[in-house]
Amino acid sequence: MNDPAASPELLEHPPAAWPAREIGALYEEHNRAIYYLALRFLGDPQRAEDATHDVFLKAFRKLDQFRGDASARTWLYRIAINHCQNLQQSWHQRHVFATSDEAVWENSAARTDSPLRVLETKELGQRIQQTLDRLSEEYRLLLLLVADGELSYEQIAALVGQSTDAVRGKLHRARKTFAALFEQTA
Amino acid sequence: MKHHAKLSPAQAHTEQQAGAQETRQQAGQEFVSADELLRYDAAQTVVPPQIGERLKASAASLPPPRRPWWKNLFGH
Q: Does A88 score more than 80 pLDDT?
């Protein structure tokens, strides 16, 4: 885990009321990544807010079990993925895009290698969410994890319980499908 | 001196539309991949500050975390 003292903000505003200084540092460094994953995975800001709170609280409770052999980021992601998947399974709120339908997008003639053009950035979030909602849960998760930029393919593979080669192949198809579906939202 | 001819209503409307289109294109962006688009989206996302406040309240009731066994063993 990173040294809490490395955060200048924490040095200026130490979270004295929190049970441990490490907790504040953990939240400061990773809250955006975890909230963004929850937001785009669940597709609902309120549920994402609750999920982020619950994920960090779980992490704080298990802080003594964190051995430091994985990065704090991957450890938090593991908790977040389990939590969000459990929420999805128990609430049955997601309309899962059928594999056969998804294959249509993958085989479509859309120019998926062309740049993704965005004219109205204020609507960008809505378009991204609409696109992600139409992807399978697996593709959505892979795209969100690789978009973090701090995770290697090996770390992503470990998080989703698949081989690195399988992750590479699925990411290729996920990107292609995302691009085709994103064009549909324009 | 440059001469500006007066535009008919139809011409003015067309020019306004063209101007609006140009503005949108100036404001628009291109992303080379889904990864880049999602990274941009993540960077624009604001984490609601109330999460931190809720966590602070929730964490205050937690017992202090135990020192990890490996820290007891090896120090740090």
A: yes
